[in-house]
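Case study 2.
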Amino acid sequence: MTARRRRPHLDVDHLIDDPRTHIVVCCGSGGVGKTTTAAALGLRAAERGRQVVVLTIDPARRLAQSMGLNELDNVPRKVTGVDVGAGGGLDAMMLDMKRTFDEVVEAHTTPDRARQILANPFYQALSSSFAGTQEYMAMEKLGQLRRRDQWDLVVVDTPPSRSALDFLDAPERLGSFLDGRLIRLLGGPARTGGKAYRKVFQAGFNVVTGALTKVLGGELLRDVQTFVNALDTMFGGFRERAEQTYALLQRPETSFLVVAVPEQDALREASYFVDRLSEEAMPLAGLVLNRLHVGDAGGISEEQAVAGAERLEALDGHELTASLLRLHADRLAAAAHDRRTAERFSAAHPDVPVAPVQALPTDVHDLEGLREIGRLLAG
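Prediction:
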């Protein structure tokens, strides 16, 4: 038997029907269909009786369009047109990275201190563009949604990172940065102990900040110091929530779906992610293999189609038939390529269940398209 025949099948309906499943995280490299997969899963789960919210991080805003919404923002919005006969419902939202960071600040400090932080130029830059902030805030928002009783299933479309591994690394990276020695030092002597210690600390602090002023410039350094002093009551909170996020992701109520397409780079990234999830003891449900080309089970072979096209091309009046044969041969070649690529992944990860999703002739742009993807996901 081939690896293709041996690989276990991912039962998507069993996953979303299981009342013990409360979080599904769709992850993978960029451009593999995570957003569409997350939306299709959310719609299918809602129409099978679950109360679902889909959290997307998608700059193209395709999810809003396919769900018939004028826009998505940081507030969950009801999706109309969903069949609620089974008692379910569907909301959708798009992560606003900066607004979520603002909410964290407002929730964990006093109103006066929050105003200081939100107005600080260094904070504004940090909350908008610091590497890893988007991934960290996606996890913050996931925690917020899970703590509410309104939904029993949260489907997360992870950020389009350069590497899928950034999603797991970012919370710890941002927490370490905000809780690190340099940031603490920039808080100045206000954090230090007795008078004698403060005197010694001040001398060392002046040396360090003098050097940083030459590198960063005095104005930026003052912004950083002001930000750190205002953020003093929140130190440790970022690391604590990062740890809570990891614990949430490791619990049995969470399932990870790695999404890929039958291309070498995408499946290499998927392989890395599968290994990392295993190392971190995070629950992997399986692989969604999108945009598979499927060849005809019967009919003429690729070689026969090419040979027939070559013969017809030598004759007058058979150009259309020859073109159709070429098209058929290309389709069979693409299907063979996808099959070989998928089999290499399965050979490396024989225990990972796979849900193959056939390539559609057109892009998904409405609820019916998402339903079709859901049907394909469910096999």
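Residues 47 and 83 are 5 Å apart (CA to CA).
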